[in-house]
Amino acid sequence: MVVEQLRDEETDRIFQALSDSTRRDIIRQSMLREQSVSDLAKHYAMSFAAVQKHVAVLERASLVRKERRGREQIVHSNPEALRRAARLLDAYEDLWRGRAARIDELLSD
C-alpha cells in the first residue's frame, strides 16, 4: 500500500488537534455546515476566546480553514486532511497486521 508521506510536524499537529474532544466536535460541526466562530462558541460551555483557540489549533493542522465574511470568520472543514490522517492510520494498521501474520508464521513452524 502506497501512502502519502506526511512530515513528522504535520502528523504531530493533526493528531494533537484530534486528541481533544472539543476540537473533534468542532470538526464535526463544521462538516455539517459552515459556521462562524461565534456560532460554534454557542455549542460549548466555554468562552468565545477558548473556542477561537481550539479553531486556531485545528487551522494549524489544516483540519479546518477560516474565511472572513465581513466581521465574521466562517469555519469550513477540510475533509482531505482527515482522509490523509485516515490513510496514515490504515498504513500503521497494515504494518501491525503484517507483523502479527509473521509472528503467527514463526510460531506455527
Plain-language structure description:
With 109 residues, the chain is of the alpha+beta class. The protein has one domain: Arc Repressor Mutant, subunit A (Orthogonal Bundle), CATH 1.10.10. Helix content is 65%, strand content 13%. It contains 5 helices and 3 strands, in the order H-H-E-H-H-E-E-H. It has helices at 8-18, 21-32, 37-41, 48-60, 79-108, and strands at residues 35-36, 64-69, 72-77. A 3-stranded antiparallel sheet has the order 1-3-2. A hairpin with a 2-residue loop joins strand 2 (64-69) and strand 3. Helix 1 (8-18) runs antiparallel to helix 4. The longest helix has 30 residues, at 79-108. It is elongated, with a radius of gyration of 18 Å.
What's this model, at a glance?
By secondary structure, this protein is α+β, with helices and mostly antiparallel strands. The protein has helices spanning 8-18, 21-32, 37-41, 48-60, 79-108; strands at residues 35-36, 64-69, 72-77. A hairpin with a 2-residue loop joins strand 2 (64-69) and strand 3.
